[in-house]
TrEMBL record:
The UniProt record lists the keyword GTP-binding: no
Chief place of localization: membrane
Keyword tags: Membrane, Transmembrane, Transmembrane helix, Transport
Subcellular location: Membrane
Spans through the membrane: 34-52, 64-85, 106-128, 148-168, 180-199, 219-238, 259-281, 293-323, 361-379, 391-414, 435-456, 462-481
Gene Ontology terms, MF aspect: transmembrane transporter activity
Pfam families, alphabetized: AA_permease_2
Signal peptide: none
Membrane topology per record: Multi-pass membrane protein
Source organism superkingdom: Bacteria
Protein name, as recorded: Amino acid permease
């Protein structure tokens, strides 16, 4: 049995085989790696902030059927990504996998699509936190909550997340560990409170699976599909376990399990939470027509003071979620920038000597995320009758950006296997075996389907934003890519076969 120092030395040598030095502090254990993805998924953020969206379009059946359907397919996607993380364990993750399997150009595009999704997810998480925190603060300090005050609170939350991430991975890792336990505790408190203290009692269990009711102007089948955004956005960001892989001890096993288990645990805890929240509803129309459906349901079920306490607990869970998301985003930019994939890369790849964190990448993540919400805020000033919500816009951008980036390396792995380039010997210790190919194919089908559903009306603004970003990406391809981006070290200097040979030598050295 290896001690921690021996394992860390082995991990460092393994990373060196891919052409990278160990710059980040490798101090995360298996639970910490799981915790960062579990915290970013955050059932107390996605499922809660978009509760009104799901209820509006799919009715109570969205919580019973919609959540379960999405979770099933996301588990397949997570398993596919976990397998790749075990095979190619670097912080570049998605883009490094794509570049190794196909070439640097597709890797470059994957990185930028992932970056777009990361901007959306950080903005969406912290804006969700602001949507809950601002009305609660307004009650305490006696002001009126508006779009402007929400944006200010959003900015303050981002600022705090930037500071905490700058200070160091040890503090963030401890907070992530605490966040995982905190999420489970708050879900337990919420469930027990609703089970025993709901004012008018709970609905029959079949209410949770009631389909056919929609509060939108869409036919129910289409409305139900649009409502899937609630669950689909919740299950995003679990690639964080791969982005922090160079900070994880024994990463080829622990990071894949972190990816997969974060989705599995989120499904179970999320289903239990949504079940009790939905069964406590006695006025669905009132919830849909309120400013915040989740706040309305909890307030009606538990009353003023007790309900407010529960809502504060949920808000703090969202805060932890955003903290973890900044960590993941900054590591992705750091890894991409050390390969000169971004303009001014030397800054974003710079590691703070004092804190051993990619400090400038952290603050760039904060600025870009605030800018996306600010653009939406200014757009609504110019067009006050816009028929979409800010949170639906931000989450739509993040879902499509992230899942397209998830899908590219999964597809390229299938293609490489078909051509005989990626073989069984190239898999890591975490593998799906004979189930790999069918699971990968189903993952791709789901990603294509959900990417279309997330940008159709009424969320077409997300499609416009993604289209605009893609045009900018093409311009950058022509002006920056050819001159500066040489690709990830492994993709540039070593074929998959060469990496395998070096790893076999490494295994021999250990013996």
């Amino acid at each position: 049995m290896k001690n921690k120092d021996q394992q860390m030395l082995e991990d460092r040598k393994q990373l060196n085989r891919y052409g990278y030095a160990q710059e980040l502090l490798r101090d995360m254990g298996g639970f910490s790696n799981f915790a960062i993805s579990f915290s970013i998924i955050s059932i107390l953020t996605g499922a809660v902030s978009l509760y009104g969206h799901g209820l509006t379009y799919g009715g109570p059946g969205m919580m019973g059927f919609g959540w379960t359907i999405v979770a099933f397919f996301v588990l397949l996607v997570a398993a596919s990504l976990a397998e790749l993380a075990s095979a190619i364990p670097t912080a570049g993750a998605l883009y490094h996998w794509a570049a190794t399997l196909k070439g640097r150009r597709i890797g470059w595009y994957t990185a930028w699509i992932n970056l777009i999704g990361q901007i959306g997810i950080v903005a969406g998480i912290d804006y969700s936190c602001a949507l809950f925190a601002d009305p609660l603060l307004a009650t305490v300090f006696g002001y009126t909550s508006t779009d402007t005050t929400i944006l200010i609170v959003f900015g303050v939350i981002l600022l705090l997340h930037g500071i905490l991430n700058h200070v160091g991975i040890k503090i963030v890792a401890k907070l992530n560990d605490f966040s995982a336990w905190y999420h489970m505790l708050v879900v337990a408190i919420l469930v027990v409170s609703l089970a025993f203290f709901t004012k008018n009692g709970l609905q029959p269990i079949d209410y949770l699976f009631q389909v056919g009711q929609t509060f939108s102007d869409k036919p129910y089948f289409l409305a139900f599909l649009i409502g899937l955004l609630q669950a689909q956005w919740t299950f995003t960001g679990y690639d964080a376990s791969a982005h922090t892989i160079e900070e994880t001890v024994h990463p080829r096993v622990r990071a894949p399990w972190g990816i997969y288990n974060s989705v599995a645990f989120s499904f179970v805890f999320g289903f239990i939470m949504l079940a009790f929240v939905t069964l406590s509803i006695h006025d669905a129309a009132g919830a849909v027509n309120s400013d915040n459906a989740f706040i309305y349901v909890i307030s009606q079920a538990l009353g003023g003071t007790f309900g407010s306490i529960v809502l504060w607990l949920v808000t703090f869970a969202m805060f932890f979620c955003g903290l973890s998301s900044i960590t993941s985003f900054s590591r992705m930019m750091y890894a991409f920038s050390r390969d000169k994939g971004m303009p001014f890369s030397r800054h974003w790849a710079e590691i703070s000597r004092k804190f051993r964190t990619p400090a400038k990448a952290i603050w760039l993540a904060v600025i870009l995320s605030f800018a996306l919400a600010l653009i939406d805020y200014l757009t609504k000033i110019l067009n006050p009758n816009a028929g979409y919500s800010t949170i639906a816009f931000l989450t739509g951008v993040s879902v499509v950006g992230l899942y397209v980036a998830y899908g590219i390396p999964i597809y390229l792995k299938l293609e490489a296997e078909a051509k005989g380039i990626f073989l069984r010997k190239h898999y890591g210790p975490w593998s799906l075996g004979k189930w790999s190919k069918p699971i990968n194919i189903l993952s791709i089908i789901w990603i294509l389907f959900i990417s279309i559903m997330m940008v159709i009306p009424p969320n077409q603004m997300a499609a416009y934003a993604l289209g605009g970003m893609f045009i900018i990406l093409i311009i950058m391809d022509l002006s920056y890519y050819k001159k500066h981006f040489k690709g990830p070290q492994a993709a540039l200097e070593k074929s998959i076969e060469e990496i395998q040979r070096l790893e076999e030598e490494f295994e021999h050295e250990k013996e």
